[in-house]
Amino acid sequence: MKELNIIISGVGGQGIILSSEILALSAMESGFDVKKSEVHGMAQRGGSVVSHVRIAKKVYSPLIEIGKGDILLSFEKAETLRWVHYLKKNSPVIIVNDLELIPPIVSLGLEEYPRDIEKTLGKITEKLYFIPAVKLAEKIGNIRSFNILLLGVLSNFLPFEEKIWEKIIRENSPAEFSEININAFKEGKNFLKI
């Protein structure tokens, strides 16, 4: 693996920062250099949150340039559209939680929620995966573990051993959620076999 640029996007409270931390630590544990950066915005009020994670033998900057992203992992459908311009043109990977969170500006009738998101994203890449992450997480017993479940999906595109992911997830989960998070990761990994 020469270089991998991953963007994780969503809204405040979805576990984006924790997910990017687990990703970065898993990459470091696998022997890679990692740099990451977050933009929180109005995160505590459900605003946009994005994290850049760059992985390579040597990484010099934490920020991904527009048009240089390899993978976009999005925790909310409309947020995918906000960050898709960061992806490279040549067959990037887009993993999308099929969740729609209606922002206040839409609830107030000042704007419309984007339509035809699937169609728009389908024009960008054939490597487009919509994941019912919330439903799958609910099935395993904790709806809040959907972010870890999505990391399981993402892991199919990365060269890190499963035992490393599991070690990092255990170390970064509260003890009472450790096994549920491991199960969520495995559920996501097994949901999408590439």
What do you see in this structure?
The chain is 38% helix and 20% strand. The protein has 194 residues and is α/β, with parallel strands linked by helices. A six-stranded mixed sheet has the order 2-3-1-4-5-6, with helices on both faces. Helix 5 (133-140) crosses helix 6 (146-155), helix 5 packs across helix 8 and helix 6 packs across helix 8 (178-191). The protein is globular, with a radius of gyration of 16 Å.
Q: Helical proportion?
A: 25-40%
Number of strands: 6
On the 0-100 scale, what is the average pLDDT?
91
Order of helices and strands: EHEEEHEHHEHHHH
Distance between the termini: 18 Å
Low-confidence spans: none
The computed structural class is alpha/beta
What is the count of helical runs? 8
Estimated radius of gyration: 16 Å
Widest β-sheet, arrangement of strands: 2-3-1-4-5-6
Strand content: 15-25%
What characteristic shape results from the CA principal axes? globular
Q: How does the major sheet shape up? A: 6 strands, mixed
Which descriptors apply to this entry?
194 residues; 8 helices
A few lines on this structure:
This protein is an alpha/beta fold. 38% of the residues lie in helices and 20% in strands.
